[in-house]
Structures are given as C-alpha cells and as structure tokens.
C-alpha cells in the first residue's frame, strides 16, 4: 500500500488508501480552519494533498466550496450523445481528483481525531475491514463510507419484494426498482426447479425468484463484498435455505431451468471496482452470460437478460451487435418485456444527457437455446 508523507512539527507518514483508485498526492501539506477555499482549490488542482487538522464540519464546508469552483468548468451538451457522455465522464473524473485532495487521517480503530468529528469506526470497519493502523483517505471517500453505512442500516424498500434490501458499501443498490419488477412479473418457464442469478449484487433478484416459488436459487458474484451483501440479505429475508450464494465464477456448476443476468448496462471501462455495477468493459460480462447460456439451460429453460438500451442511445453499442451476439451464442429471442425508468434524473432537464435518459428503455429479454 502507498504511503503519504508530510511535515507536522516533524516528518510523519501514513498509509494511503483509495477505493476509487485516486492517485497518491504529489505532496501533502497540513490544512486547518484558516485555509481559504481559493487556496485549497489551487493546491488541489496542482496535485497537492491537504491533510485536514481543523474542525470536521468546516472541512465539509470547504469541500462544498471547492466543488462549486470545479462546477464552473462543467461541460454542456456536445454534438452527439457519445461525445457528451465522454466529456461528462472525463469531467467527473477531474472533479473526483480535485475534491479527493482534501484528506483526513483515520487513527487506530478508525478514530477521527478532529473537532466535532462523528464516530466513523463502525462504518469504516464495515467498508475496510479490521483496522491496520493509521490510514489517510479522501474526505469524499469517508463521507461515502458513512453514507453507505446509513443506507445499509435503513435499507432500500423494494415493492416487488414487499421488503427492504440492505446494500453494503461498494455494492450497487437497487434504487431503480423498475428492472426488479420485470423479473417479478415475467412468465416463468414451465416446471422451473433451479434458477441461477448471475452477478447477484445485493441478492435482490435471487430473493425475487425465491419468493416466486423457485425451490433452489444459486446466486453468483465476482465480488466478495457483493457475496457477503447478498448472503446478509437472503438471511434477513429468511431465504437462506433456498438461495445459495457462491463465486467468483460467473456460472455455478450444473444446469438450471432459468438463468437471470442483469449485467452492468454501459459498455465502458470502470474507473475502479466501485464502478463495476455500472460499467462493463467491452461488454465482457454480457458476452460471458450469452456464450455460456445454451450449455447451462435445462431443456425448455430460459435465460433472462435484464438490460437497458442506454448504451445503445449513447452510441456505445448497437442493437444489431446485441442481437448478433445472441445469435452467435446459439440462442433465440423468445420474448421481451419493456419498462421505462422512473428515477429523478429522467426529469432533470438541466442534465445534458436528459433526452437520452428520458427515452431509455429497460428490457427483459427471454432467451432460449436454438
């Protein structure tokens, strides 16, 4: 693990950790309540880390002031959705790098030794594991860790389940429930005894399948965090005798009458593991699902691909490419159910990608072997 070094009366150092893959600051200086936002922004743009030693709430105010300065350079709409998407993704990466230069030091047992600082020990232990001594992190990351702890405690109500799902840090939360409703209402193939849920995440789709009466559901995920989250949720729901969580392989052993996969919807490279629920580099998970499906289906079984057309509308993948991949995998389309998003960004007309988001369609593709 990388190390940051700074002078605070004497030379000091601490481990550097970034879940989002932020680079190590070029140098680190100590900052406190006397730091002006204009100076902090200048330091951050130069690549200098600011190790905060002042009041915790003042640090949050400084972060907001820096964010306002970053926001002045946000791009508008470009000539095409693909170029707009590229520019805004590049801007978000720039914003993350600049704001990520405001640092805090987590002492032993994740103690935050700042005035008016909250107790972040439990949130950090859930996100990072057992404390290994002092570690420096970006304040933006720490706020995300604390926010994730609140999500985990409160949970996300899923109408299709009539229950709450509790996402863990780093696991994509099912806040867009329209795709869950597709899985809840699609007609099941006849006499399904076993179902696979590939890339289960929080386990929400595995839980829906179990609630629909499928006697054995095997849920897989490449991420150890996601597997722990899914297991936690199926236990909370009393479904752990029906749902088995495994990984990191995409497909478990054996065959199933139903195989469900909700891969990341945007075929672009993730910036870090935290992006794996959104970005699928080169459509790798999608291809893995399609290429392996025919050999894992029981006779008369179906594969359900839950996929938004957002990547198509952004010009990152065509409908023809998707259908050609289905055909090349020895599959046919047996049917399709569509739905439209209901999340707040659909109504945000100030979003340069508003037209694309408003037109988005999420589909459940019912696939069968030829």
Terminal residue distance: 50 Å
Contiguous helical run count = 12
Structural class, from helix and strand content?
alpha/beta
Q: What string gives the helices and strands in order? A: EEEHEHHEHEHEEHEHEHEEHEHHEHE
Could you give me the name of the CATH homologous superfamily of the largest domain?
Vaccinia Virus protein VP39
How helix-rich are the residues, as a percent range?
25-40%
The domain count comes to: 2
Shape estimate: globular
Largest sheet: 7 strands, mixed
CATH topology annotation of the largest domain: Rossmann fold
How many beta strands in the DSSP annotation? Answer: 15
Task: State the name of the first-level CATH class of the largest domain.
Answer: Alpha Beta
The CATH level-2 architecture of the largest domain is identified as 3-Layer(aba) Sandwich
3D architecture notes:
This is Class I SAM-dependent methyltransferase. Pfam families: MTS. With about 375 residues, the chain is of the alpha/beta class. The protein has two domains: about 5-150, no CATH class; about 155-370, Rossmann fold, CATH 3.40.50. It is about 35% helix and about 25% strand. It contains twelve helices and 15 strands. The strands form three sheets. It has a seven-stranded mixed sheet with strand order 11-10-9-12-13-15-14, with helices on both faces. Strands 1-2-6-5-4-3 form a six-stranded mixed sheet. Helix 1 (about 35-45) packs across helix 2 (about 55-70) and helix 4 (about 120-130) crosses helix 5. About 40% of the residues are buried.
